[in-house]
Amino acid sequence: MDGLYGDSTRSVKAVGSEPVPGNPVVAPPVIASTFHLSPDEAQPLDKYGRYSNPTWRQLESALAELEGAAAALVFGSGMAAITSVLRVLAKPGTKLVVPADGYNQVRRYAKEYLASQGVTVVEAESAGMCAAASDADVVLAETPANPGLDVVDLHRLAMDCRRRGSTLVVDNTTATPFGQQPLSLGADLVVASATKALSGHSDLIAGYVAGSHPELMAAVEQERLLAGAILGPFEAWLVLRSLGSAGLRFDRQCQNAQALAVMLRAHPAVRWVRYPGLPDDPSHQVAAQQMKRFGGLVAIELTDADAVHALVDRSALLVASTSFGGIHTSVDRRIRWGDPVSDGFARIALGIEDTDDLISDFERALQ
Ligand code: PLP
Q: I want to staple 147 with a disulfide (CB 3.0 to 4.6 A). Which of 115, 177, 223, 347 is the partner?
Protein backbone atom coordinates (compact mmCIF):
# COMPACT_ATOMS: atom_id res chain seq x y z
CA MET A 1 0.00 0.00 0.00
CA ASP A 2 1.24 3.52 -0.63
CA GLY A 3 2.60 5.99 1.88
CA LEU A 4 -0.30 8.42 1.38
CA TYR A 5 -2.27 7.02 4.29
CA GLY A 6 -2.03 7.50 8.04
CA ASP A 7 -1.50 4.52 10.34
CA SER A 8 -5.15 3.99 11.27
CA THR A 9 -6.20 4.08 7.63
CA ARG A 10 -3.46 1.57 6.80
CA SER A 11 -4.52 -0.79 9.57
CA VAL A 12 -8.19 -0.61 8.54
CA LYS A 13 -7.29 -1.24 4.89
CA ALA A 14 -4.86 -4.02 5.82
CA VAL A 15 -7.57 -6.15 7.42
CA GLY A 16 -10.20 -5.67 4.69
CA SER A 17 -10.92 -8.25 1.98
CA GLU A 18 -11.01 -7.92 -1.81
CA PRO A 19 -14.25 -6.20 -2.88
CA VAL A 20 -15.96 -9.24 -4.41
CA PRO A 21 -19.77 -8.65 -4.45
CA GLY A 22 -21.48 -10.98 -2.01
CA ASN A 23 -18.30 -11.81 -0.08
CA PRO A 24 -17.95 -10.68 3.53
CA VAL A 25 -16.13 -7.34 3.97
CA VAL A 26 -13.96 -8.94 6.66
CA ALA A 27 -13.02 -12.54 5.86
CA PRO A 28 -14.22 -15.16 8.39
CA PRO A 29 -11.63 -17.49 9.98
CA VAL A 30 -10.71 -20.72 8.22
CA ILE A 31 -10.61 -23.26 11.03
CA ALA A 32 -9.10 -26.42 9.61
CA SER A 33 -6.30 -28.82 10.43
CA THR A 34 -6.31 -30.54 7.04
CA PHE A 35 -7.30 -29.63 3.46
CA HIS A 36 -8.30 -31.61 0.32
CA LEU A 37 -5.26 -32.77 -1.63
CA SER A 38 -5.07 -33.06 -5.40
CA PRO A 39 -4.97 -36.60 -6.87
CA ASP A 40 -1.55 -36.03 -8.48
CA GLU A 41 1.65 -34.83 -6.80
CA ALA A 42 0.81 -31.11 -7.34
CA GLN A 43 0.61 -29.50 -3.92
CA PRO A 44 -2.29 -27.14 -3.19
CA LEU A 45 -1.45 -23.91 -1.32
CA ASP A 46 -2.93 -25.30 1.90
CA LYS A 47 -2.58 -28.94 2.89
CA TYR A 48 -2.02 -29.22 6.64
CA GLY A 49 -2.59 -26.67 9.42
CA ARG A 50 1.00 -26.63 10.72
CA TYR A 51 2.28 -25.64 7.25
CA SER A 52 -0.11 -22.83 6.38
CA ASN A 53 -3.59 -21.44 6.83
CA PRO A 54 -5.56 -18.80 4.85
CA THR A 55 -6.32 -16.77 8.01
CA TRP A 56 -2.60 -16.73 8.92
CA ARG A 57 -1.87 -15.45 5.43
CA GLN A 58 -4.36 -12.60 5.79
CA LEU A 59 -2.94 -11.61 9.17
CA GLU A 60 0.63 -11.96 7.91
CA SER A 61 0.01 -9.70 4.97
CA ALA A 62 -1.56 -7.06 7.28
CA LEU A 63 1.40 -7.26 9.71
CA ALA A 64 3.94 -7.09 6.85
CA GLU A 65 2.17 -4.02 5.50
CA LEU A 66 2.24 -2.29 8.91
CA GLU A 67 5.92 -3.15 9.59
CA GLY A 68 6.97 -2.12 6.07
CA ALA A 69 8.22 -5.69 5.43
CA ALA A 70 8.07 -7.97 2.40
CA ALA A 71 6.67 -10.76 4.59
CA ALA A 72 5.55 -11.69 8.09
CA LEU A 73 5.10 -15.02 9.89
CA VAL A 74 2.73 -15.47 12.82
CA PHE A 75 3.57 -17.59 15.87
CA GLY A 76 1.80 -18.96 18.94
CA SER A 77 3.34 -16.28 21.19
CA GLY A 78 5.90 -13.49 21.17
CA MET A 79 8.34 -15.87 22.87
CA ALA A 80 7.75 -18.48 20.15
CA ALA A 81 8.57 -15.85 17.49
CA ILE A 82 11.70 -14.64 19.28
CA THR A 83 13.10 -18.05 20.21
CA SER A 84 12.45 -19.40 16.68
CA VAL A 85 14.49 -16.54 15.22
CA LEU A 86 17.26 -17.09 17.79
CA ARG A 87 17.40 -20.82 16.99
CA VAL A 88 17.76 -19.97 13.29
CA LEU A 89 20.48 -17.37 13.80
CA ALA A 90 22.46 -18.50 16.85
CA LYS A 91 24.54 -21.63 16.20
CA PRO A 92 27.44 -23.06 18.22
CA GLY A 93 30.21 -20.42 18.18
CA THR A 94 27.83 -17.51 17.50
CA LYS A 95 28.24 -14.42 19.67
CA LEU A 96 24.74 -13.18 20.55
CA VAL A 97 23.92 -9.88 22.28
CA VAL A 98 20.63 -9.73 24.23
CA PRO A 99 19.13 -6.78 26.13
CA ALA A 100 20.08 -6.69 29.83
CA ASP A 101 17.20 -4.28 30.51
CA GLY A 102 14.61 -5.89 28.19
CA TYR A 103 11.99 -8.62 28.61
CA ASN A 104 13.58 -10.98 31.11
CA GLN A 105 12.38 -14.31 29.67
CA VAL A 106 14.30 -13.71 26.44
CA ARG A 107 17.47 -13.32 28.51
CA ARG A 108 16.63 -16.47 30.43
CA TYR A 109 16.13 -18.43 27.21
CA ALA A 110 19.46 -17.22 25.84
CA LYS A 111 21.37 -17.98 29.04
CA GLU A 112 19.60 -21.18 30.06
CA TYR A 113 19.19 -22.79 26.64
CA LEU A 114 21.30 -21.20 23.89
CA ALA A 115 24.44 -20.90 26.05
CA SER A 116 24.34 -24.66 26.67
CA GLN A 117 24.27 -25.16 22.85
CA GLY A 118 27.62 -23.36 22.46
CA VAL A 119 26.29 -19.84 21.83
CA THR A 120 28.22 -17.04 23.59
CA VAL A 121 25.56 -14.87 25.20
CA VAL A 122 26.42 -11.28 26.09
CA GLU A 123 23.98 -9.03 27.94
CA ALA A 124 24.01 -5.30 27.20
CA GLU A 125 21.98 -2.38 28.55
CA SER A 126 20.27 -0.18 25.95
CA ALA A 127 23.00 2.46 26.32
CA GLY A 128 25.74 -0.14 25.75
CA MET A 129 24.17 -1.96 22.76
CA CYS A 130 26.36 -0.37 20.09
CA ALA A 131 29.56 -1.10 22.03
CA ALA A 132 28.50 -4.72 22.69
CA ALA A 133 27.56 -5.17 19.03
CA SER A 134 31.07 -4.30 17.83
CA ASP A 135 32.21 -7.96 17.86
CA ALA A 136 28.86 -9.79 17.81
CA ASP A 137 27.32 -11.98 15.12
CA VAL A 138 23.69 -11.51 16.12
CA VAL A 139 22.23 -8.57 18.04
CA LEU A 140 18.76 -8.57 19.59
CA ALA A 141 17.66 -5.07 20.65
CA GLU A 142 14.43 -4.09 22.39
CA THR A 143 13.35 -0.45 22.32
CA PRO A 144 11.81 1.10 24.34
CA ALA A 145 13.06 -1.62 26.69
CA ASN A 146 10.54 -3.34 28.94
CA PRO A 147 10.27 -2.38 31.80
CA GLY A 148 12.77 0.52 32.20
CA LEU A 149 11.84 2.23 28.87
CA ASP A 150 15.37 3.16 27.83
CA VAL A 151 15.75 3.64 24.06
CA VAL A 152 18.35 2.22 21.65
CA ASP A 153 19.51 4.35 18.71
CA LEU A 154 18.40 1.92 16.00
CA HIS A 155 19.87 3.73 13.00
CA ARG A 156 23.31 3.84 14.63
CA LEU A 157 23.09 0.23 15.80
CA ALA A 158 21.99 -0.91 12.33
CA MET A 159 24.96 0.89 10.74
CA ASP A 160 27.35 -0.74 13.23
CA CYS A 161 25.84 -4.18 12.52
CA ARG A 162 26.00 -3.66 8.76
CA ARG A 163 29.66 -2.63 8.96
CA ARG A 164 30.48 -5.79 10.88
CA GLY A 165 28.19 -8.04 8.83
CA SER A 166 26.12 -9.06 11.83
CA THR A 167 22.36 -9.58 11.93
CA LEU A 168 20.17 -7.08 13.79
CA VAL A 169 16.85 -8.27 15.21
CA VAL A 170 14.58 -5.73 16.91
CA ASP A 171 11.78 -6.54 19.35
CA ASN A 172 9.07 -4.04 18.39
CA THR A 173 6.54 -5.09 21.05
CA THR A 174 6.48 -1.93 23.18
CA ALA A 175 6.60 0.55 20.28
CA THR A 176 4.40 -1.41 17.83
CA PRO A 177 4.61 -0.59 14.10
CA PHE A 178 2.46 2.49 14.86
CA GLY A 179 5.31 3.79 17.03
CA GLN A 180 8.37 2.87 14.97
CA GLN A 181 9.41 0.80 11.96
CA PRO A 182 12.78 -0.83 12.78
CA LEU A 183 13.14 -2.30 9.27
CA SER A 184 13.15 1.18 7.75
CA LEU A 185 15.91 2.11 10.24
CA GLY A 186 18.09 -0.78 9.02
CA ALA A 187 17.09 -3.82 11.13
CA ASP A 188 17.15 -7.22 9.41
CA LEU A 189 14.18 -8.68 11.27
CA VAL A 190 11.41 -7.49 13.57
CA VAL A 191 10.10 -9.83 16.26
CA ALA A 192 7.14 -8.96 18.47
CA SER A 193 4.41 -10.09 20.77
CA ALA A 194 0.99 -9.46 19.25
CA THR A 195 -0.47 -10.25 22.68
CA LYS A 196 -0.14 -6.57 23.60
CA ALA A 197 -1.44 -3.46 21.79
CA LEU A 198 -1.98 -5.05 18.36
CA SER A 199 -4.58 -7.53 19.62
CA GLY A 200 -5.27 -5.16 22.50
CA HIS A 201 -8.09 -6.89 24.41
CA SER A 202 -6.12 -8.98 26.95
CA ASP A 203 -7.67 -12.20 25.68
CA LEU A 204 -5.03 -14.03 23.60
CA ILE A 205 -1.32 -14.79 23.19
CA ALA A 206 0.33 -14.37 19.76
CA GLY A 207 3.57 -13.26 18.13
CA TYR A 208 5.13 -12.55 14.75
CA VAL A 209 8.34 -12.09 12.79
CA ALA A 210 8.58 -9.56 9.94
CA GLY A 211 11.38 -9.08 7.43
CA SER A 212 12.39 -8.69 3.82
CA HIS A 213 15.31 -11.16 3.37
CA PRO A 214 13.72 -14.11 1.51
CA GLU A 215 16.27 -16.73 2.74
CA LEU A 216 16.05 -15.58 6.34
CA MET A 217 12.25 -15.58 6.31
CA ALA A 218 12.21 -19.02 4.63
CA ALA A 219 14.51 -20.38 7.38
CA VAL A 220 12.23 -18.94 10.09
CA GLU A 221 9.20 -20.49 8.35
CA GLN A 222 10.95 -23.89 8.29
CA GLU A 223 11.68 -23.52 12.00
CA ARG A 224 8.00 -22.80 12.68
CA LEU A 225 6.93 -25.80 10.62
CA LEU A 226 9.36 -28.20 12.28
CA ALA A 227 9.22 -26.92 15.86
CA GLY A 228 5.46 -26.39 15.54
CA ALA A 229 5.18 -23.11 17.48
CA ILE A 230 2.07 -22.13 15.50
CA LEU A 231 -0.86 -19.82 16.16
CA GLY A 232 -4.37 -21.34 16.16
CA PRO A 233 -6.46 -20.01 13.24
CA PHE A 234 -9.15 -18.66 15.56
CA GLU A 235 -6.57 -16.63 17.52
CA ALA A 236 -5.13 -15.43 14.20
CA TRP A 237 -8.60 -14.23 13.25
CA LEU A 238 -9.03 -12.48 16.63
CA VAL A 239 -5.76 -10.60 16.08
CA LEU A 240 -6.93 -9.66 12.59
CA ARG A 241 -10.27 -8.49 13.99
CA SER A 242 -8.47 -6.30 16.53
CA LEU A 243 -5.81 -4.97 14.18
CA GLY A 244 -8.23 -2.66 12.36
CA SER A 245 -8.75 -0.63 15.55
CA ALA A 246 -5.17 -0.96 16.83
CA GLY A 247 -4.04 2.42 15.45
CA LEU A 248 -6.94 4.16 17.19
CA ARG A 249 -6.36 2.35 20.49
CA PHE A 250 -2.61 2.92 20.41
CA ASP A 251 -3.11 6.64 19.76
CA ARG A 252 -5.25 6.93 22.89
CA GLN A 253 -2.80 4.85 24.94
CA CYS A 254 0.08 7.11 23.88
CA GLN A 255 -1.97 10.25 24.60
CA ASN A 256 -2.83 8.89 28.08
CA ALA A 257 0.81 7.92 28.73
CA GLN A 258 2.08 11.38 27.78
CA ALA A 259 -0.48 13.16 29.99
CA LEU A 260 0.15 10.80 32.91
CA ALA A 261 3.94 11.08 32.63
CA VAL A 262 3.71 14.89 32.72
CA MET A 263 1.44 14.76 35.79
CA LEU A 264 3.51 12.17 37.67
CA ARG A 265 6.77 13.96 36.84
CA ALA A 266 5.57 16.90 38.97
CA HIS A 267 4.04 14.81 41.77
CA PRO A 268 5.84 14.78 45.15
CA ALA A 269 4.89 11.12 45.85
CA VAL A 270 6.76 9.95 42.72
CA ARG A 271 10.56 9.59 42.95
CA TRP A 272 11.14 9.48 39.22
CA VAL A 273 9.34 8.85 35.92
CA ARG A 274 10.65 7.40 32.66
CA TYR A 275 8.71 8.04 29.46
CA PRO A 276 10.46 8.61 26.11
CA GLY A 277 7.90 11.30 25.25
CA LEU A 278 8.92 13.55 28.17
CA PRO A 279 11.14 16.31 26.70
CA ASP A 280 13.65 15.92 29.56
CA ASP A 281 13.74 12.10 29.51
CA PRO A 282 17.31 10.86 28.83
CA SER A 283 15.96 8.93 25.79
CA HIS A 284 13.87 11.70 24.31
CA GLN A 285 16.27 12.96 21.68
CA VAL A 286 16.86 9.55 20.11
CA ALA A 287 13.20 8.56 20.59
CA ALA A 288 12.01 11.71 18.81
CA GLN A 289 14.25 10.86 15.83
CA GLN A 290 13.08 7.29 15.37
CA MET A 291 9.58 7.08 16.87
CA LYS A 292 6.28 8.42 15.59
CA ARG A 293 4.54 7.77 18.90
CA PHE A 294 6.22 7.18 22.25
CA GLY A 295 4.16 4.21 23.43
CA GLY A 296 1.64 3.34 26.08
CA LEU A 297 3.99 2.43 28.96
CA VAL A 298 5.21 4.69 31.78
CA ALA A 299 7.79 3.57 34.37
CA ILE A 300 7.77 5.12 37.84
CA GLU A 301 9.29 4.60 41.26
CA LEU A 302 7.31 5.17 44.46
CA THR A 303 8.81 4.87 47.95
CA ASP A 304 8.15 1.13 48.37
CA ALA A 305 5.85 -1.79 47.55
CA ASP A 306 3.14 -0.57 49.96
CA ALA A 307 2.93 2.75 48.13
CA VAL A 308 2.28 0.90 44.84
CA HIS A 309 -0.36 -1.34 46.46
CA ALA A 310 -2.02 1.75 48.00
CA LEU A 311 -2.11 3.45 44.60
CA VAL A 312 -4.04 0.54 43.13
CA ASP A 313 -6.31 0.13 46.18
CA ARG A 314 -7.34 3.79 46.21
CA SER A 315 -7.88 3.98 42.45
CA ALA A 316 -11.26 3.41 40.84
CA LEU A 317 -9.77 2.64 37.42
CA LEU A 318 -6.46 0.79 37.85
CA VAL A 319 -6.14 -2.98 37.78
CA ALA A 320 -3.13 -4.82 39.19
CA SER A 321 -2.11 -7.14 36.37
CA THR A 322 0.81 -7.89 34.13
CA SER A 323 1.11 -7.46 30.34
CA PHE A 324 0.23 -4.23 28.50
CA GLY A 325 -1.52 -2.84 25.45
CA GLY A 326 -5.04 -3.74 26.64
CA ILE A 327 -8.01 -1.41 27.03
CA HIS A 328 -7.71 -1.18 30.85
CA THR A 329 -4.96 0.82 32.54
CA SER A 330 -2.90 -1.56 34.67
CA VAL A 331 -0.03 -1.51 37.13
CA ASP A 332 2.66 -4.18 37.49
CA ARG A 333 5.39 -4.31 40.16
CA ARG A 334 8.06 -5.86 38.00
CA ILE A 335 10.21 -7.04 40.89
CA ARG A 336 7.72 -9.87 41.36
CA TRP A 337 8.76 -11.20 37.91
CA GLY A 338 12.47 -11.02 38.69
CA ASP A 339 13.30 -7.80 36.83
CA PRO A 340 16.32 -5.93 38.25
CA VAL A 341 14.21 -3.06 39.66
CA SER A 342 13.41 -1.68 43.12
CA ASP A 343 10.49 -2.63 45.38
CA GLY A 344 8.66 0.61 44.59
CA PHE A 345 9.14 0.36 40.80
CA ALA A 346 5.88 0.11 38.86
CA ARG A 347 5.25 -0.23 35.15
CA ILE A 348 2.01 1.49 34.23
CA ALA A 349 0.34 0.22 31.05
CA LEU A 350 -2.09 2.80 29.77
CA GLY A 351 -5.50 1.76 28.51
CA ILE A 352 -8.01 3.67 26.40
CA GLU A 353 -9.99 5.38 29.17
CA ASP A 354 -10.67 9.12 28.82
CA THR A 355 -7.48 11.01 29.60
CA ASP A 356 -9.07 13.44 32.09
CA ASP A 357 -10.68 10.60 34.04
CA LEU A 358 -7.35 8.79 34.34
CA ILE A 359 -5.43 11.85 35.45
CA SER A 360 -8.07 12.71 38.10
CA ASP A 361 -8.08 9.10 39.28
CA PHE A 362 -4.27 9.04 39.69
CA GLU A 363 -4.35 12.40 41.49
CA ARG A 364 -6.94 11.09 43.95
CA ALA A 365 -5.19 7.77 44.45
CA LEU A 366 -1.78 9.35 45.09
CA GLN A 367 -3.05 11.83 47.69
N1 PLP B 1 8.86 -9.04 24.10
C2 PLP B 1 8.47 -8.13 25.01
C3 PLP B 1 9.09 -6.78 24.99
C4 PLP B 1 7.50 -8.46 25.95
O5 PLP B 1 7.13 -7.55 26.86
C6 PLP B 1 6.93 -9.76 25.94
C7 PLP B 1 5.90 -10.16 26.93
O8 PLP B 1 5.58 -9.43 27.85
C9 PLP B 1 7.37 -10.67 24.99
C10 PLP B 1 8.32 -10.28 24.07
C11 PLP B 1 6.82 -12.07 24.94
O12 PLP B 1 5.53 -12.07 24.40
P13 PLP B 1 4.46 -13.24 24.69
O14 PLP B 1 4.03 -13.07 26.11
O15 PLP B 1 3.40 -12.97 23.68
O16 PLP B 1 5.16 -14.53 24.47
A: 347
